[in-house]
Amino acid sequence: MARSVVVVFGATGLQGGGVANALLHDSGFKVRAVTRNASSAKAKALQERGAELVEGNYDDPGSLERALQGAHGMFVVTNYMEHQEFDRDVKQGKAVADAAKAAGVQHVVFSSLENVQKTMGFPCLFYDSKAEIEEYMKSIGLPVTIVKYPAYYENYINFGPRKLEDGTYELGYALEGAAMHAVSVADMGFAVRTIFKNRAEWLDRTVGFSGDKLTIQQHADILSKHLAPKVFKPTKMTTEEYSKLGFPGAEQIANMFKFYRLGNPDRSVELTRQLYPGTRSLDQWVADNKEALLNVLEKK
Ligand SMILES: NC(=O)c1ccc[n+]([C@@H]2O[C@H](COP(=O)([O-])OP(=O)(O)OC[C@H]3O[C@@H](n4cnc5c(N)ncnc54)[C@H](OP(=O)(O)O)[C@@H]3O)[C@@H](O)[C@H]2O)c1
């Protein structure tokens, strides 16, 4: 049987990387990984594992059309955080949508988020831009499944907790005691693969991913248990105080915390495990990643 070509945007990153990895494990798919730089180490590693590499840039519509030629499926996530420009993020997402429509892509999996401005009355620009792209994709009749990622467990490796003067580590989610959903972004590649394998079942549906819904005190307890004698604590900072930290994006991230606390984002551990039974709890994930976590703490 001919293999389905799935174009994976962001394949050198966390979400797309998880998706590319899962599809590369399945002989039913041919992965075409899109990157702005085909000679980067991450791109080369994908090629070595059997992915086709194409250079493409969300800011260059012609490159998107070329990348999507002959594709059956497409996974796409835009990266607001890189440029932090709302209009540019929406323009990039619409350009990919238009290119997918022109190429006749049969199944788009789009990594979206909620329209916080519309539902809560305050903005969260990196959520709102994705919601606008989602709306556009639906308005032009793209065959789409929407997935929504919560916070990644991997943030504890990629950003790491802050080391305090007393030698303990502070988890920076300023949630004032509220619980939040989180998941391993790597695990979710396999959930997306299930969606691609079962197009008819998942078309026109939205899935909010989650591996666990826990308070940050529970995150701290899990990390302290596995990484003892290191001790972890949730930040005492309020959402409001976080919004005034002054680094680029701080206000928007604080508004995301406010949305986590007050907006009850629709994520489902049950549905996520149905898509990928191997979806790990935070406890399992920390146990599996002790060495990587300890390496990060050594550098603090
Ligand atoms: N961290 C979290 O907990 C979390 C949770 C939920 C959602 N998110 C959302 O996830 C998104 C980021 O995804 P990620 O975590 O997978 O990011 P990432 O690991 O930083 O990777 C970004 C990817 O996007 C690609 N890319 C960026 N700009 C591009 C452009 N102009 N044209 C083509 N490709 C481009 C990069 O490819 P090349 O560099 O190879 O070109 C790279 O593969 C953000 O919008 C964020 O809001 C994050």
TrEMBL record:
Q: Gene3D superfamilies, per this entry? A: NAD(P)-binding Rossmann-like Domain (3.40.50.720), UDP-galactose 4-epimerase, domain 1 (3.90.25.10)
Q: Where is this gene product found? A: Cytoplasm, Perinuclear region; Nucleus
| Keyword Cytoplasm assigned | yes
The UniProt record lists the NmrA-like domain at 4-283
InterPro entries hit by this protein? NAD(P)-bd_dom_sf, NmrA-like, NmrA-like_oxidored
Keywords in UniProt for this one? Cytoplasm, NADP, Nucleus
On whether Cytoplasm is a keyword of this UniProt record, the answer is yes
Query: What GO CC annotations are associated with the protein?
Result: nucleus; perinuclear region of cytoplasm
Pfam families given in the database record? NmrA
Q: Write down the PANTHER family for this protein, in alphabetical order.
A: NITROGEN METABOLITE REPRESSION PROTEIN NMRA FAMILY MEMBER, NMRA LIKE REDOX SENSOR 1-RELATED
- Report the sequence similarity comment from the record: Belongs to the NmrA-type oxidoreductase family.
Protein's name in the database: NmrA-like family domain-containing protein 1
